Amino acid sequence: MFRYLTVALIILTAVACSNKGPQFVIQGKVADADTAVLYLEKRELDKITLLDSVKLGDTKGDFKFSQPTTSYPEFYVLRLNGQVINIAIDSTENVTVNASQKRFATDYTVEGSEANSLLKDVALAQYKANHELVELRKRFDSKAVNEQEYITEVKSIADSYKETAKKIIFTNLKSPAAYFALFQKVSGYLFFDPYDRTDYKIFAAVATAWDMEYKDSPRAKQLHDYTLAAMKIRKQSEQNLDIDFDNIHEANTAEYYKIELPDVNAKNINLASLKGKAVLLDFTVYQDENSPRHNMELNRLYNKYKPNLEIYQVSFDSDTHLWKNAAINIPWIAVHEAKSVNSELIARYNVQALPTIFLLNKDGDIVKRLLPNDNIETEIQKIL
């Protein structure tokens, strides 16, 4: 008897607590849901909390979740069989979501909230980009596209997402959809890069709007701190390095020199070991049809300016055998990145085309990223 009373008290307490304060409602219907369970989760900055669930077969697909709200926007997820619908709640909204079980994450309608209509557009753009990247990866693995084409298409897909996201962000900077759009990722990397000069301005604009509108929000503080940290790193880098920040992905400057890869003899060679020499850092692929001509030009420059100039050439060729055959007779340092275009060097140096060349002075500082119209020999002479 005592046990049943205890359970009853717990239930009554839970009900009483849930009735305190303002509430939001997410309701709707999932077609063809059979016996699937629909979950409501809260996605906070540091944790995911399961709030409620419903067995859709018992309700013929209907669902209704009611939860206490906050004075600032928070993010929630409807999860069904591994598919998710992202929902933003600001105040006491009543949001209606209708979907099908089969295409739950992509074929749904949302009513009662302009922010959630925009958030849906962001989510679908991110889903489209990731789907295209998966298909592109399959084409790359099957050798239907080479490394150069792969990198070019990845950038094109990311840029397409960013164009869609920017329109949504600037529709309303303080909207939850603007925050959500900023932090979407592909393969673990943010589409918008806070260390990029152009993207940083977007982060700063949203951070300012959220500071003013939602000063008590943990997300406003996180965005504020995140943006300030990026600004400090940018300023430190600009003071210490003469880098073209419109063309290079910025990071902690010490990270740039952490390249240690094997040569044709399987000996690991560290870029940092070349400090004291002027270095031409070349990212390339030997499989590209222009590679022989590119290497012939490097060979001319190397013979002319050695021993004052060293070349550290990183190949992203997916075919190791081909790379070895091509690199065996190269006189400069030629190393291989076995991860090919999955290498984090691609993101770290913002490699958008191959070959891409950087020049490092004798102190080990990156002083130039060569652009298509630059005279490579003139730029080399400046660092000798």
Automatic annotation (TrEMBL):
Main location: other
Disulfide bond found in the keyword field: yes
Record-level GO BP terms: cytochrome complex assembly
PROSITE patterns noted in UniProt: PROKAR_LIPOPROTEIN, THIOREDOXIN_2
Alphabetical list of CDD domains matching this protein: TlpA_like_family
Organism: Dysgonomonas macrotermitis
Gene3D superfamilies per UniProt: Glutaredoxin
Record carries keyword NAD: no
Lineage: superkingdom: Bacteria
Parts forming coiled coils: none
Subcellular location per the Swiss-Prot or TrEMBL entry: Cell envelope
Organism ancestry: Bacteria, Pseudomonadati, Bacteroidota, Bacteroidia, Bacteroidales
Any single Gene Ontology cellular-component annotation: cell envelope
Entry keyword set: Cytochrome c-type biogenesis, Disulfide bond, Redox-active center
Domain Thioredoxin span(s) in chain numbering: 248-384
Signal sequence bounds: none
Protein's UniProt name: Peroxiredoxin
A Pfam match: DUF4369
